[in-house]
Amino acid sequence: MIRKDIDKLCAAGVPLGRITVGADCMTVVERLRAGERLEVCSLGDVCTSVSGLLRVLYAVASRGASLRSQSDPWLDMEAKGCNWMDLIGGLLEFMSRSTSERTKEALRQRKLSGQSVGRPKGIPPERLKRYRAGVMLYRSSGMSVREICAVSGLEVRSFYRYMKSEGIALKRRNEVNGQSETESAPAPDPTSGPEL
Questions:
Q1: How far apart are CA 162 and CA 67, in angstroms?
Q2: Distance CA 169, CA 180 (A)
Q3: pTM of the model
Q4: What residues contact 181, with CB distance under 8 A and at least 6 apart?
Q5: Residue 193: predicted pLDDT
Q6: What are the mean pLDDT values of the chain's consecutive 10-residue runs (196 residues total)?
Q7: Other CB atoms within 10 Å distance of the CB of residue 106
Q8: CB-based burial of residue 177 (10 Å sphere; 0-12 exposed, 13-18 middle, 19+ buried)?
Q9: Which of 173, 118, 174 is nearest to 146 (CA)?
Q10: Contact call for residues 35 and 65 (beta carbons, < 8 A)
Q11: pLDDT computed for residue 130 by the predictor
Q12: DSSP states of the chain as a string?
């Protein structure tokens, strides 16, 4: 990647002896003289935030120098006039891109260090305890699923899904004679039908 960036800068007319790799941007800016131009491959090489970019731009301008980015043509300090819509659009694009790049880099570093990335698999231990306590209440008391969920702080649909995944038999009320019967059928949609 560095070789490709160096080739880009050479193609833009920067002498190979003037290319600096891995240096702190402000150190390079402090060496600029009036009339010189700092040519970069990407603004992401210079800074990672809009406030950082504005600090660099101010430092470059206060030395009478200019800055140009190969991948961000909207920012050309040598251009005559200023198109504010291009400038604002470019700043928004820069913010989005720099956030995305930082996120991708952080995820890559976590993967390399063996840490898990993304949403954890399975049910969190605290919630699993509440599900199990809810199942015990369901089996031992005459409480309805809605009452159990209200007491234990669980969502009704999630509790039904957990019971189904664990193969727990559901008690259904027989609406004809008011008697209760047990069946292993899938749980009904708790937002419709009779109260359990």
A1: 59
A2: 12
A3: 0.42
A4: 171, 172, 174
A5: 44
A6: 58 61 71 81 76 80 82 68 63 80 88 84 88 91 88 91 88 51 48 47
A7: 11
A8: exposed
A9: 173
A10: yes
A11: 93
A12: -HHHHHHHHHHTT--GGG--SS--HHHHHHT--TT-EEEES-GGGT-SSHHHHHHHHHHHHHTT-EEEESS-TT-BTTSSS--HHHHHHHHHHHHHHHHHHHHHHHHHHHHHTT---SSPSS--HHHHHHHHHHHHHHHHS---HHHHHHHHT--HHHHHHHHHHTTPPEEEE-TTT--EEEE-SPPPPTTSSS--
The count of C-alpha atoms lying within 13 angstroms of the C-alpha of 138, restricted to the half-sphere facing its C-beta, is: 24
Tokens of 35: 């009339």
What type of residue is 92?
Answer: L
What is the Cα–Cα distance from 149 to 174, expressed in whole angstroms?
Answer: 22
121 is written with which tokens?
């698999």
Q: Tokens at residue 160, please?
A: 């039904």
Residues listed for the chain: 196
